[in-house]
Design goal:
Layout lengths: L20 H23 L9 E3 L2 E3 L1 H15 L19 H20 L12
Antiparallel strand pairs: 1-2
The structure holds zinc ion.
Length: 127
């Protein structure tokens, strides 16, 4: 079993104010949907990938749709309270392959949204 540090709060975290679990899940889900959608649009849909699914006004190819639901499920099942940023967490609940994918998405889309002034959606909250 990995060592769990339930009291751990990342230094400089903008989430010091405690969200309820439900608020956190809603916020994280919104960020995940937005981040994966923009990554998919630029890397897959624009290059001819088929839209597998449209959810809440955003389109995803099959691969990204699977990634989105994987990430939402991991997030839902996070055993830590308060949940740390994934990059600061020792649990490593993502499969290595999915972890690599989501890191790539967060990096790309984090830069994309920061350039558009969404500083409140800092990607390193996740990875
Ligand atoms: Zn995609």
């Amino acid at each position: 079993m990995p060592v769990i540090r339930p009291q751990f709060v990342p230094p400089g975290s903008m989430f010091k104010k405690t969200l309820t679990t439900e608020q956190r899940l809603r916020k994280d889900a919104k960020v995940l949907r937005a981040f994966i959608a923009v990554y998919c649009r630029v890397h897959h849909l624009r290059h001819g990938a088929a839209v597998q699914c449209r959810e809440q006004g955003r389109d995803y190819c099959a691969e990204c749709h699977a990634l989105l639901h994987y990430a939402l499920q991991r997030n839902d099942r996070c055993p830590l309270e308060p949940k740390p940023a994934c990059k600061d967490c020792d649990v490593r609940c993502y499969k290595p392959q999915m972890r690599e994918k989501i890191r790539e998405v967060m990096k790309f889309s984090g830069i994309y949204y920061v350039k558009r002034g969404r500083l409140d959606w800092l990607w390193h909250y996740f990875f």
